[in-house]
């Protein structure tokens, strides 16, 4: 068998000969391709500039463009928008008969209330709850359906048999709903009224009240107690120094086998408009759902502000990798008995239960 030797110089020489023969054509072709690519790039750049310019011109035109009549019919007018922002007010009356121990609640009307569906197929109604009196009761106390307007008038009466000594611990909740083509319970607003502010000791007739509605929250009034914090509060009128001693805490376990938690207490001072003035917190206590803090926190509070400020207690659980979880909170208001005692004597102490809204199952 004979080995055939291959001469690799022949194809190389052939390629060289081809390039030498067509040298000018190849150079011109390469220049043409480069020029074509450059032209394409320039055209693309000009197109982008033109699109951007047209878009900016459209924005300028839209600034001075008035909405069409069809669009103006859909959009609420200035007065309607103002009503939607303010959510309106609710008027009601209370009357208590000491002999029969009967509390009568009359839902009179709501005014300046936003209407979600202005097509004429919407109806308004109010649900009344007395908490914690109705905490374990499934009966729904609601007014009759009224054609939804900005001033729906109801005039419905509700009576509850309740002992006089239990009245001071009750809170009335008014839920404003709208029934329309899309929803049977479209929440509009809510109002809470503490019966502690009413003097039921004297024989009185029907007393009328008016309160503003605020943003609807279906879980308001359904808070559950999730823990408690024991505080000792002292106030030095000469130095305007408020000393809060966080002594210990108690957490309601979320699970039956829960025995440990890393917790701390956050305290916030608010003025009469619920604006934050100062905030501080304790150190983290690890390994117990019954933490002992024994830590003092100081705030500078002028004497004239003491009767109008609020103290917010927040019990939190420290997490390793995620944000701290709020176990519960409680706001001490100027009407609180502990706060009244602080103003009178300069000292008060006791357990303050903290509450949290249950999570939705959906």
UniProtKB/TrEMBL annotation:
Signal sequence range = none
Please identify the protein, giving its name as recorded. Answer: Synaptotagmin-2 isoform X3
Transmembrane residue ranges: 24-44
Xref: Pfam families: C2 (PF00168)
Asked whether the keyword Membrane is assigned, the reply is yes
Q: Coiled-coil segments, which residues?
A: none
Q: Which SUPFAM superfamilies match?
A: C2 domain (Calcium/lipid-binding domain, CaLB)
Keywords assigned by UniProt, alphabetized: Membrane, Transmembrane, Transmembrane helix
What sequence ranges are listed for the domain C2? 86-209, 225-352
On whether Transmembrane is a keyword of this UniProt record, the answer is yes
């Amino acid at each position: 068998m004979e080995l055939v030797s291959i001469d690799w110089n022949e194809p190389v020489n052939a390629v060289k000969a081809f390039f030498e023969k067509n040298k000018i054509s190849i150079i011109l072709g390469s220049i043409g391709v480069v020029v074509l690519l450059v032209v394409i790039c320039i055209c693309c750049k000009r197109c982008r500039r033109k699109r951007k310019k047209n878009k900016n011109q459209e924005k300028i035109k839209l600034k001075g463009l008035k909405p069409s009549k069809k669009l103006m019919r859909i959009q609420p007018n200035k007065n309607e928008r103002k009503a939607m922002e303010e959510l309106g007010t609710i008027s009601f009356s209370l009357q208590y008969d000491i002999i029969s121990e009967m509390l009568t609640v009359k839902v009179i009307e709501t005014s300046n209330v936003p209407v979600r569906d202005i097509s004429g197929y919407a109806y308004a109604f109010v649900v009344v709850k007395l908490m914690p009196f109705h905490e374990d009761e499934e009966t729904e106390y609601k007014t009759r359906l009224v054609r939804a307007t900005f001033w729906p008038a109801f005039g419905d009466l509700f009576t509850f048999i309740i002992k006089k000594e239990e009245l001071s611990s009750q809170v009335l909740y008014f839920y404003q709903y709208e029934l329309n083509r899309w929803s049977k319970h479209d929440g509009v607003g809510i109002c809470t009224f503490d019966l502690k502010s009413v003097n039921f000791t004297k024989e009185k007739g029907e007393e009328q009240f008016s309160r503003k509605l605020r943003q609807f929250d279906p879980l308001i009034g359904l808070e559950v107690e999730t823990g408690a914090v024991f505080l000792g509060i002292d106030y030095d009128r000469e130095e305007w120094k408020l000393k809060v001693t966080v002594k210990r805490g108690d957490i309601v376990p979320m699970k039956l086998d829960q025995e440990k938690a890393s917790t701390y207490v956050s305290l916030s001072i608010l003025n009469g408009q619920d604006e934050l003035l100062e905030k501080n917190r304790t150190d983290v206590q690890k390994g117990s759902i019954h933490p002992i803090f024994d830590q003092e926190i100081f705030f500078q509070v002028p004497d004239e502000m003491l009767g109008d400020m609020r103290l917010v207690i927040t019990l939190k659980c420290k997490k390793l990798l995620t944000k701290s979880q709020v176990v519960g909170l409680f706001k001490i208001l100027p009407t609180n008995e502990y706060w009244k005692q602080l103003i009178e004597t300069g000292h008060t102490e006791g357990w303050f239960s903290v509450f949290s809204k249950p999570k939705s199952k959906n």
